[in-house]
Specification:
GO molecular function: DNA-binding transcription factor activity; sequence-specific DNA binding
CATH topology of the largest domain: Jelly Rolls
CATH class of the largest domain: Mainly Beta
Organism: Devosia insulae DS-56
Pfam families: AraC_binding, HTH_18
Radius of gyration: 19 Å
Number of helices: 9
Order of helices and strands: EEEEEEEEEEHHEEHHHHHHH
CATH architecture of the largest domain: Sandwich
Protein name: AraC family transcriptional regulator
Distance between the termini: 23 Å
Keywords: DNA-binding, Repressor, Transcription, Transcription regulation
Length: 263
């Protein structure tokens, strides 16, 4: 589909397009942009060539740093927040067109798949060669490695309150005991509730939020020093240590390795 749409748009109904895969190029303006919760019959791949996107679904937050993509199954309610000046591609897939999970996941995107997505977005539909490109794209998608860039969230009111507060102020370093008092629970009850609802300890859950925020802000051009301060770390070294322990590489090497794998 040869068009670069300003994000968000109101005049494209992807469910009325019959092709098994449709790729759309997205230009985000100079301000961070949020699209409220919505859903469509087709599944959606959100691919970031530059900048980043955070996708929210009922069960969690999913991070889309540069050269990665989030898969959102069809008919799943979701909202998207894109960083300023992001260069994105949305690929819409007919249900069952590719062997992809029935739940969200973040995928690394190979150079071949990246070029297929870009080429399809830059073409007018109904070319015979498009059918071949789409077949290759649908065959390649299930082969992409999954990145652990997911924050499980819960509709449980007390956890939702904590998650929203931490998302608004990730530098809040209050202990689980302090948070328990804030939501009128005992510390042990809150600890059990977090594990029950998210599968993570409170500390690991908050750390995962920090990783999500860090990758989003670093992708948006913030320095390691800025992100470390914004997340309330006592020193840059302690932030880098946390990041490396969680993702295997310090921030700069992690982002460059993702970009290298994809280009």
């Amino acid at each position: 589909m040869r068009q670069a749409l300003q994000y968000p748009w109101t005049d494209l109904d992807v469910d009325r397009i019959s092709a098994p895969a449709v790729s759309v190029r997205i230009d985000v303006g100079q301000a961070r942009t949020e699209v409220p919760e919505h859903q469509h019959r087709k599944g959606q791949l959100v691919f970031a060539l530059a900048g980043g996107v955070t996708c929210r679904v009922p069960s969690g937050l999913w991070m889309v740093p540069p050269h990665c993509a989030v898969w959102i199954p069809g008919s799943l309610p979701h909202s998207n927040i894109a960083t300023a000046n992001a260069r994105l591609f949305f690929v819409y897939l007919e249900p069952g067109a590719a062997e992809l999970p029935d739940q969200c996941c973040t995928l690394s995107i190979s150079p071949l798949l990246r070029e297929l997505i870009i080429e399809l977005a830059d073409r007018e539909p109904a070319h015979e060669v498009d059918e071949l490109l789409i077949k290759v794209l649908l065959a390649q998608l299930p082969l992409m490695p999954v990145q652990q860039l997911h924050l499980p969230v819960s509709a449980e009111p007390r956890l939702a309150t904590i998650a929203n507060a931490l998302a608004a102020n990730p530098a809040d370093r209050a202990t689980v005991g302090v948070w328990a008092r804030r939501v009128a629970m005992s510390e042990s009850s809150l600890s059990r509730l977090v594990v029950q609802e998210t599968g993570l300890s409170f500390g690991r859950w908050r750390q995962q939020l920090h990783l999500m925020v860090a990758i989003r802000e670093l992708s948006d051009g913030a320095t390691v020093q800025q992100v470390s301060a914004d997340l309330g770390y006592a020193s840059v070294a302690s932030f880098i240590s946390m990041f490396k322990k969680a993702l295997g590489k310090p921030p700069a090497k992690y982002l460059s390795s993702v970009a290298h794998k994809s280009g």
